[in-house]
Amino acid sequence: MINIKTAKELDLMRYSAKIVGQCFEYISEFLKPGITTREIDKKVEKFIRSKGAIPAFKGLYGFPASACISVDEEVVHGVPSKKRVLEEGEIVSVDIGVLYEGYYGDAAYTFPIGNVSSEKKELMRTTWESLMKGIDKARAGNRLSDIGASIQAHAESRGYSVVRTLVGHGIGKALHEEPQVPNYGKMGKGPLLKSGFTLAIEPMINIGTETVTEASDGFTIVTQDQKPSAHYEHTVHIRDGEPEILTQHQLTPLG
Ligand code: MG
Q: For residue 117, how far is its CA from the centre of ligand 1 (angstroms)?
């Protein structure tokens, strides 16, 4: 069953999602060569707690940190480490979840570290555009698969591949609610989208193969061919039939 959120629930979700968006703006200035992924994680945790909220990923399925931080060929679920120093030219996906008064917000953003290759820039740009194309399909009267079909069409038109074993999700009182939101598919399939749905849409797009594997730490997902991957995510509410991004921020990889 897909939950329809009430106005009161949406007010709480707006708050938790807003903290997520603000957190990305806050950490963006620290994503420079020389910082460790653990230092980034600590800044994320401190920021979330300063807002009276809880980092949603900490302890979830045993995850030991507040943010998932995934570098280059790491797709998602990277574990922050004091040994992992970010270097010029890397691209770093940071995934943040916030719990506030029983409701969740969830988003991800891939940052460039210093100057990155045009190959990586193009991957980031296309992944961001794919997210926006997916969000644009989150409208009452469309079908769920329209979101994934649009993401896939855009990414594949640029020669990239779409990770299939990991998907977006409904979100609200639980971080992961129904429905699953794949980043691929054919138009016109699945449930009818309705006002009051809240979805975390999160394309993971690869330069090489779509195939991913789990690293030996039991968390980090990496591309099988070790080629880079990018990941952008927003929590979206269908409001009066139209998509409203709840995890809004001022960052953009398009500039
Ligand atoms: Mg998510």
A: 27
